[in-house]
Amino acid sequence: MYENMGVAIIGCGGIAHAHCNTVLAKDDTIQLYMYDVDLEKAESMCQQYSGAGIFDTYQEVLSSEKVDVVDICVPHDFHVPVTIAAARAGKHILLEKPIARTLREADQILKAVGDSGVRLFVAECWHFYPSAVKSRELIDQGVIGVPFLIQANSLQYHTPPEWRAVKDKMGGGVLIDRGIHFINYLRMLGGKVESVSATFNHQTIHSMEGEDTASLLLKFQNGVTGQLTVSWATRTAMNWPWLAVYGSEGNMYDTGDGFYVQSFINERYNDKGKPVRLFDTMLEDYTIPAEMEHFVECMRSGEKFKVTGLDARADLEVVEAGHRSVETGKFIYL
Ligand SMILES: NC(=O)c1ccc[n+]([C@@H]2O[C@H](COP(=O)([O-])OP(=O)(O)OC[C@H]3O[C@@H](n4cnc5c(N)ncnc54)[C@H](O)[C@@H]3O)[C@@H](O)[C@H]2O)c1
User: Fold this and answer.
1) Are strands 225-231 and 213-220 parallel, antiparallel or unpaired?
2) What is the architecture, at CATH level 2, of domain 127-283+315-333?
3) Which of 54, 61, 95, 135 is the most exposed place for a label (fewest CB within 10 A)?
4) What would you measure as the largest C-alpha separation in the chain, in angstroms?
């Protein structure tokens, strides 16, 4: 479909730099343009990555015939206007997660995209997390029998600056910004979510308005239990498991230094009773380039994206259910 592609990065902040360190800036058949409300940022990014040029206004981006795709890397409170304008202008869309702050906003985006017929990929890099991808494959092969418990953890110490500290701009706290990544791979492994129960903490990072720690208990429709703990308030020097999947006949873990499998029914994954180490832990340094290669490949081949707008909406649905559970003290059924 697209042998040569013009891609305009909209919002030249933190994640946009990560995008520029991928195929987007390294492939000669992609012309990479930049736009930011802060024009100096666009200018400096264009120089740093030898971009094809910058735009002075968003309107110029949308009316330019050189631009096939907009890569939207703006704060969460701008996802709706920037994405809907792009859809109406007929530009294909690469939108950073979360799709939006609320399901209502997500539905506005999905409607505009549906009405215009452009393609939408939501950049959920953890969908490409090798430990989760391999876990899915090994669950399907029956290596650990019937899975019953899936755990995801992300424990950091981080003080979010600027818009991330403002609950309304962010759409919440750590759950919508960081936790949504792990909801995506919990759903990839557990399937459809039936109910969500959540607790939030906010004792440590006082400069942010939203929760700094979120704990979710998920029940999947197939009876599997999912647990997620995501925090920006944990000062720990210890390794902690990013992922653990427990099944009737074995377990799989990403311990932070590698991915391990222990099967009681498949000798390939049993080292005299101990787990077998399959590969190193690979986080964003791997997943962001992988998601961008997937995006470019799908634009070229016309294949379906691995993370569609509806997938991103389903991730956000769990976030929203988490908020409602905290407000009501109840399990929320989806
Ligand atoms: N996949 C990941 O791991 C990951 C990591 C970080 C951020 N993100 C996502 O990327 C998006 C941006 O986050 P960030 O950390 O890069 O933010 P950031 O604050 O570092 O950068 C945002 C940039 O957008 C610009 N901007 C603001 N409003 C704009 C508008 N209307 N039009 C054009 N430019 C505008 C700002 O000037 C700024 O340069 C968010 O959706 C965030 O959740 C994803």
Assistant:
1) antiparallel
2) 2-Layer Sandwich (3.30)
3) 54
4) 64
| Residue 44 Cα distances to 17, 48, 54, angstroms | 11, 6, 10
Q: Which atom of ligand 1 is nearest to the CA of 82?
A: 31
HSE of 58 in the Cβ direction (CA atoms, 13 Å)? 19
φ, ψ at 262 (rounded to 5°):
-130, 115
| Rounded distance from Cα 37 to ligand 1 centre (Å) | 11
Q: Which two tokens stand for residue 123?
A: 């950049």
List where CATH 3.30.360.10 sits in the chain: 127-283+315-333
Mean pLDDT by runs of 10 across the 334 residues of the chain is 91 98 96 98 98 98 98 98 98 98 98 98 98 98 98 95 97 98 98 98 96 98 98 87 96 96 97 96 96 97 97 98 98 98
Q: Give Cα separations from 67 to 10, 19, 92 (angstroms).
A: 12, 17, 9
Distance CA 196, CA 216 (A): 7
> How many whole angstroms from 151 Cα to the centroid of ligand 1?
28
The 3-state DSSP class for residue 97 equals coil
- Ligand 1 and 76: CB distance under 6 A: yes
Dump the DSSP string for 7-40: EEEE--SHHHHHHHTSHHHH-TTEEEEEE-SSHH
Query: Nearest C-alpha to atom 8 of ligand 1 is from which residue?
Result: 15
d(CA 93, CA 83): 7
**pTM exceeds 0.85 for this model:** yes
CATH number of 5-123: 3.40.50.720
Q: Does ligand 1 come within 6 angstroms of the Cβ of 72?
A: no
Give the SS3 label for residue 267.
helix
Could you give the residue range(s) of every CATH 3.40.50.720 domain in the chain? Answer: 5-123
